[in-house]
């Protein structure tokens, strides 16, 4: 059992090699110089164009892509050479776009660094890779050919050092973990706010129940206590009351004197009213 466990890593490594070999195997091609020459020509064409020219060419191809695709398909008949265009429309546009996207990563062109050779996949497509030296980063060009030696896939990638790869990996890890922590903090904040939402709902329910209950009549306000009579009246108030009483009695006496004089035919100067008393059998009382 222990021996089997010791052999397990070696078996896994062999399996991985077999899988990779099944996907693509490096092969020797008799006309390798032709693939090298074609790769060099394509690179020379790319480095001869500046960024503005590249953008103009890419925009023109994208805006007239269907026409360009049809022209590529009919190239042998239009050109009259009987040879097909080296690229499919998609591969040619992909090569230009890939180089333009990484132009700042490459810098100035130096020269050919290494012809890595050709590999063949299970579908019989041949891929030829070449490394070109630039000032900032080297570039690996991989061109995939079909059975008619037409480029159907083109990739141009910068080659980074181990330190740069580790730095990018650390940065990606930091960004990923930071994003996760930010999302977790936001979720914790939202969850902590749920209790306030619940409290607001309960408060609203209690307020609604209170409004539905009949309002009780408010108790009557107590009657104000009678003001205490002053112990002694003010002198001015007493004098005013006395004067009013005397004036009223004088007027009453005058009225009665005139009435008696008119009834008896006597002059008002002939008698004097001394006092006035109410009698029960008063003739002046109306029935």
TrEMBL record:
One of its GO terms (biological process) is sodium ion export across plasma membrane. It comes from the Bacteria. Residues 1-28 form the signal peptide. One of its GO terms (cellular component) is plasma membrane. The chain crosses the membrane at residues 174-197. Residues 206-226 are annotated as: Disordered. InterPro entries: Na_pump_deCOase. Residues 206-215 have a biased composition (Basic and acidic residues). Its main location: membrane. It is found in: Cell membrane. GO terms for molecular function: sodium ion transmembrane transporter activity. Keywords: Cell membrane, Membrane, Signal, Transmembrane, Transmembrane helix. NCBIfam families: oadG_fam. This is OadG family protein. The lineage of its organism: Bacteria, Bacillati, Bacillota, Clostridia, Lachnospirales.
């Amino acid at each position: 059992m222990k021996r089997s466990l010791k052999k397990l890593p070696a078996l896994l490594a062999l399996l991985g090699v077999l899988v990779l070999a099944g996907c693509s195997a490096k092969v020797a091609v008799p006309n390798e110089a032709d693939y090298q020459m074609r790769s060099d020509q394509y690179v020379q064409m790319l480095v001869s164009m500046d960024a503005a020219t590249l953008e103009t060419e890419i925009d023109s191809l994208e805006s007239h892509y269907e026409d360009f695709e049809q022209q590529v398909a009919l190239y042998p008949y239009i050109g009259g050479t009987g040879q097909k265009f080296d690229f499919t429309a998609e591969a040619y546009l992909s090569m230009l776009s890939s180089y333009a996207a990484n132009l700042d990563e490459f810098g100035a062109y130096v020269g050919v660094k290494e012809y890595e050779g050709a590999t063949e996949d299970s579908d019989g497509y041949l891929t030829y890779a070449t490394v070109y030296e630039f000032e900032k980063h080297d570039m690996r060009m991989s061109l995939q050919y079909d059975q008619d030696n037409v480029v159907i896939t083109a990739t141009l990638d910068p080659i980074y050092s181990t330190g740069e790869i580790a730095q990018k990996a650390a940065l990606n890890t930091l960004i990923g973990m930071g994003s996760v922590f930010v999302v977790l903090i936001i979720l914790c904040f939202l969850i902590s706010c749920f209790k306030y939402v619940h409290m607001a709902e309960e408060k609203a329910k209690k307020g609604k129940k209170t409004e539905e209950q009949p309002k009780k009549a408010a108790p009557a306000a107590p009657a104000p206590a009678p003001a205490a009579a002053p112990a002694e009246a003010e002198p001015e108030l007493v004098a005013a009351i006395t004067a009013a009483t005397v004036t009223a009695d004088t007027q009453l006496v005058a009225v009665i004197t005139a009435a008696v004089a008119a009834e008896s035919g006597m002059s008002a100067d002939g008698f004097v009213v001394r006092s006035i008393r109410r009698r029960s059998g008063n003739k002046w009382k109306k029935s």
